[in-house]
Backbone:
C-alpha cells in the first residue's frame, strides 16, 4: 500500500477516533436509538419490502416480455412503456464490463434507451430468467424525507441464433428503491409510492460460444 | 511463531457444510430455485448492508432475522470467518505468501468480536467509503479516490458526504532540496515587489506558504470540477475502511467471482492502537 495512501487513511481516522473514548455499551444504546429513528418500524418495513418485491417482480416480468422476440410487437411495446412508468424520472442504467486487461469500463444510459436497446438485440431468440433471490436492504430516510433502499436481483440472459446459444451471461442488478409521497388528485390524498431508481448492472459470469 | 491450524484448510469443508445447510433450509415460495448458481448467489454477500447484517449476526443467508434454529447450524464465529476473502494467498499454507501471523490476527479478532459481542454500527462515522474513480483531467483519464462518510441529519435522516479526495493529480507541486525559496525579510518595504517573482515559480509555490500550510485537496477538486478542468467519469471500485470495532481496522471490498465466498468480504485486517490504523 503506498505510504501516502496509508497516511491519508491514518489522518482521517485520527480525526474520527477522537470521540472513540466513550464506552462501547453507551455507544451501543445510543446507536440502537439512532437506528430505530432512522429506519422504519418492523411493520412498515415488511409492508414496504413486500411492495418492493412486487415492484421488482413487475419490472422483471416486463423485461422478460420485451426481450422475448416470440411475443407480438404490440405487447412488447406495451411492456416497454409500462416498465418506464416504474422508474423515477431521470433513472439510469450503469453497465460495467471487465476488459481483458482487468480494468473495468462503465457505461451509463437513460433507462428509456436501455429498454429500447434490449428490445432490439440482434438475436433471433432471447431468454431472460431471474433467480428467485432478491436481497432488499432496509429503508433509510434521506434529508429530503424520502426513504431509500436497494434491491439486488440476479438475471440470467441467453441469446440464441436459431437454436444455438451465441451469448449467455449472469448479471447482478442493484436497483435503487425510492419511496416518495405522491398526491392522488382523484381521491385528494397523499400516499407513499414506490419507485425504481438507478440500476447498477455488473456481469458476473459470461459464456460466449 | 506458533499458529492456529490453517484457516484455508477449514474453509472448503465449511463451504460444503454451508451448501448442505442452504439445501436443508425450508424453501419458501421466494426461494424455489436451487441451481448451483442460485445457491452461490444466496451465499454471496450481495450488498455492503448485507455484509454488516451478517457480521452483526442480525440476518441469515436469506436476509431473515437470525433465530435459534440458524444459531444451532451456523455460529457467529463461523459466519464472521466466512466474511473473509478465503482466496487470499495469506491463508494457503502451501503457498509462498502464507502468513501464520495474519491467520492468528484473524483468530484473535474473531475471538474479540464474539467475546465482547462487538457490532459495527451501520451509520458509524468510522465507516469510510473510498470511491476509486476515473476522471478526465486535461483530456486524459486519471484515477483519484473520493473518501465518503455517512452524516446523520436531524437525528432521523442519513446522507453520504464527501470527506476528502486523494490522487497524484492533486500533487502538482514539486519538491526541491537544492535551493532555499523564500520572500526576504525586508520585502514589505518594497511593497512586496518580489511577490510576482515568487508566484512565477509555479512548481514550488508551497515553499512561499507558512510552515503549517497543508493543501486542501477537496477544495482544489471542487474548483477543478467547477472550472471544467476536471470531468468526473465514474466510480470504478468501492473500498470500505472500517474502524468501528475498537482496536481493529477492517478493509472490505467486493469480490465479483463465481464462488460461494464472494461479494463484499474482508480483504484485510489490521490491529491498531491509539485510534490509528497501521500503527
Residues:
Amino acid at each position: 500500500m503506498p505510504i501516502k495512501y496509508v497516511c491519508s487513511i491514518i489522518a482521517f481516522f485520527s480525526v474520527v477516533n477522537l470521540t472513540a473514548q466513550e464506552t462501547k455499551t453507551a455507544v451501543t444504546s445510543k446507536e440502537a436509538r439512532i437506528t430505530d429513528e432512522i429506519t422504519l418500524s418492523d411493520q412498515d418495513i415488511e409492508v414496504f419490502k413486500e411492495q418492493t418485491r412486487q415492484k421488482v417482480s413487475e419490472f422483471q416480468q416486463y423485461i422478460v416480455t420485451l426481450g422475448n422476440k416470440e411475443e407480438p410487437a404490440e405487447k412488447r411495446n406495451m411492456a416497454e412503456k409500462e416498465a418506464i412508468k416504474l422508474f423515477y424520472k431521470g433513472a439510469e442504467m450503469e453497465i460495467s464490463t471487465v476488459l481483458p486487461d482487468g480494468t473495468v469500463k462503465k457505461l451509463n444510459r437513460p433507462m428509456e434507451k436501455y429498454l429500447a436497446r434490449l428490445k432490439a438485440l440482434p438475436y433471433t431468440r432471447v431468454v431472460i430468467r431471474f433467480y428467485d433471490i432478491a436481497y432488499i436492504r432496509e429503508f433509510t430516510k434521506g434529508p429530503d424525507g424520502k426513504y431509500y433502499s436497494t434491491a439486488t436481483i440476479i438475471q440470467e440472459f441467453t441469446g440464441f441464433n436459431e437454436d444455438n446459444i451465441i451469448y449467455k451471461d449472469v448479471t447482478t442488478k442493484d436497483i435503487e428503491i425510492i419511496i416518495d409521497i405522491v398526491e392522488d388528485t382523484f381521491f385528494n390524498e397523499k400516499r407513499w409510492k414506490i419507485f425504481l431508481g438507478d440500476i447498477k448492472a455488473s456481469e458476473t459470469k459470461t459464456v460466449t460460444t | 511463531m506458533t499458529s492456529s491450524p490453517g484457516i484455508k484448510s477449514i474453509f472448503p469443508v465449511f463451504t460444503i457444510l454451508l451448501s448442505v445447510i442452504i439445501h436443508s433450509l425450508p424453501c419458501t415460495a421466494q426461494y424455489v430455485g436451487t441451481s448451483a448458481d442460485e445457491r452461490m448467489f444466496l451465499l454471496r454477500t450481495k450488498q455492503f448492508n448485507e455484509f454488516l447484517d451478517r457480521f452483526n449476526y442480525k440476518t441469515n443467508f436469506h436476509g431473515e432475522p437470525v433465530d435459534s434454529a440458524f444459531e444451532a447450524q451456523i455460529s457467529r464465529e463461523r459466519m464472521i470467518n466466512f466474511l473473509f476473502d478465503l482466496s487470499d494467498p495469506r491463508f494457503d499454507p502451501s503457498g509462498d505468501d502464507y502468513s501464520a501471523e495474519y491467520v492468528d490476527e484473524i483468530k484473535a479478532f474473531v475471538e474479540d468480536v464474539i467475546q465482547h459481542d462487538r457490532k459495527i454500527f451501520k451509520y458509524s462515522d468510522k465507516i469510510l467509503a473510498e470511491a476509486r474513480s476515473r476522471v478526465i483531467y486535461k483530456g486524459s483519464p486519471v484515477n483519484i479516490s473520493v473518501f465518503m462518510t455517512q452524516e446523520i441529519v436531524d437525528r432521523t435522516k442519513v446522507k453520504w458526504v464527501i470527506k476528502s479526495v486523494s490522487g497524484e493529480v492533486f500533487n502538482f507541486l514539486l519538491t526541491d532540496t537544492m535551493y532555499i525559496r523564500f520572500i526576504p525579510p525586508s520585502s514589505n518595504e518594497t511593497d512586496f515587489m518580489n511577490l510576482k517573482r515568487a508566484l512565477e515559480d509555479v512548481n514550488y509555490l508551497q515553499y512561499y506558504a507558512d510552515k503549517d500550510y497543508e493543501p486542501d485537496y477537496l477544495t482544489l477538486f471542487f474548483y477543478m470540477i467547477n472550472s471544467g478542468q476536471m470531468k468526473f467519469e465514474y466510480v470504478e471500485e468501492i473500498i470500505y475502511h472500517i474502524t468501528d470495532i475498537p482496536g481493529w481496522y477492517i478493509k472490505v471490498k467486493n469480490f465479483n467471482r463465481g464462488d460461494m465466498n464472494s461479494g463484499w468480504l474482508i480483504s484485510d485486517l489490521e490491529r491498531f492502537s491509539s485510534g490509528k490504523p497501521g500503527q
